[in-house]
Design goal:
single chain, 423 residues, alpha+beta, Beta-Lactamase, 9-stranded mixed β-sheet, 6-stranded antiparallel β-sheet, 7 helices
């Protein structure tokens, strides 16, 4: 009996052992591999989020390119139309008469008294009409919504440019004649518009005009000797790009992230052009610091404007929201669109990325639990099945052993009886 019992147990335990070890090995390998991968999950989710922010920043950059191309096409058409109309009227020329101007620097408002020849359109002088109640020939006729036109006269050898005919308004609603663009900016740098025009080149791009920024074309006016004596301006307010602005305001990064736009250079460097929900537009945040007391807006603007055009870079920083004590880690994807002088940022909280990674880990843990339950049930069923099979194998051996034992002891009748019961 003991030998037969031993055979059954050997079959049962050896078979069950192999199945259990094999099943647990598979589970262990699966667990170790997935556990290793889950450790890299946060990095993978961060990379995924960075890629998403990069794509968002690029899409806005490309939308700016399309808008810029459309604006430039319109400006090219406008300046050609205006130049043709000027020629039809008789062209621009100087009179022998001199007129005095109290020329106002559009940046620092300094006044310079200067005497210049009258600029004539055909046979007519534009006049010094400082209000829009007095109609100014030609420039008021070509005025259109969002589009502006100006004729400049060169003031001196340096190249300061005086507005002598314009439909651009000052901050107090007056006509901006008598204001001028200096060759030298307040910070000592050369003004890019005047510098280009004085070289005989056409300037295209973003420029500060009296009180606001416009997308512009400045084209030199030359005399018969090819000397620059003034320039023509056609500009359009970026209000024509309101659809682009609306799309930026609607863009959501992750759960609560957003896209913002800052001024990249000049007088509007560090100013909000487009803020979250548009609530802080026009606000100067140049000196804002993060949770580590680092001037983060300066860092963002500098990095964006110095990176290769069309490329995306990232900045991570700590930020404490009003009413909170613990700082949030934020990550920003940056692009710089030079024609608009826009620093574009797609920002989100790292905690959202970590939360997403934790959710994925929890999903894996749930899968492990169900796998464990399934394996446990499989082991129990396997043991029961192996026990059934081992009985099928061990019982005949047991019966044969008992019959042989009876025969060896001379108990032939008992052996025959057992054999009959088996058959």
């Amino acid at each position: 009996m003991l030998k037969n019992f031993s055979i059954k147990n050997k079959i049962l335990f050896s078979t069950s052992f192999v199945i259990i070890v094999l099943t647990l090995s598979i589970f262990l390998i699966l667990y170790l591999v997935s556990n290793k991968e889950s450790k890299n999950l946060s990095n993978q989710m961060t990379d995924y989020s960075k890629n998403n922010m990069s794509n968002l920043a690029k899409s806005i950059y490309y939308a700016c390119e399309v808008t810029d191309q459309s604006i430039n096409k319109i400006l090219d058409e406008k300046i050609k139309i205006y130049k043709d109309k000027i020629k039809q009227i008789g062209g621009l020329n100087f009179s022998n008469e001199i007129v005095n101007w109290n020329a106002i620097n559009q940046f620092n408002k300094e006044i310079t008294t200067i005497s210049l020849p009258k600029v004539m359109l055909g046979n007519d002088w534009f006049g010094q009409k400082f209000t829009f109640d007095e109609k100014m020939k030609f420039v008021d006729d070509v005025r259109e919504q969002y589009f502006y036109f100006t004729i400049f006269q060169r003031m001196n050898n340096i190249g300061d440019m005086l507005r002598i005919a314009t439909n651009v308004e000052t901050a107090d609603g007056k006509r901006a004649i008598g204001t001028y663009i200096p060759f030298t900016n307040p910070d000592g740098s050369q003004n890019p518009v005047v510098s280009a025009v004085m070289k005989g080149l056409t300037y295209r791009g973003s420029a500060y005009v009296v009180k606001d920024y416009y997308q512009t074309i400045y084209e030199p006016i030359k005399d018969k000797n090819n000397n620059v004596i003034g320039m023509l301006f056609v500009g359009v307010s970026l209000k024509v790009a309101d659809k682009l602005r609306e799309n930026i305001l609607k863009t959501v990064v992750g759960k609560s992230g957003y896209v913002f736009v800052l001024g990249g250079s000049g007088a509007r460097k560090g100013y909000y052009i487009i803020s979250k929900d548009g609530k802080r537009d026009g606000e100067n945040i140049w000196d804002v610091t993060d949770a580590n007391n680092e001037k983060i807006i300066q860092k963002i603007t500098t990095q964006a404007t110095e990176q290769p055009e069309g490329s995306i870079s990232f900045i991570q920083y700590s930020w404490i929201n009003p009413g909170e004590e613990k700082p949030n880690e934020k990550i920003v994807g940056l692009a710089y669109f030079k024609p608009f002088d826009w620093v574009i940022g797609a920002e989100t909280n790292l905690s959202e990325i970590e939360e997403l990674a934790d959710n994925v880990k929890e999903a894996f843990n749930s899968i492990y639990f169900y796998i464990f339950i399934v394996i446990t049930v499989m082991i129990i069923l396997t043991v029961l099945f192996v026990n059934y099979i081992s009985n099928k194998i061990a019982n005949p051996i047991k019966n044969a052993t008992e019959i042989m034992h009876d025969i060896s002891k001379g108990r032939i009748n008992e052996a025959i009886s057992k054999l009959e019961n088996i058959t």
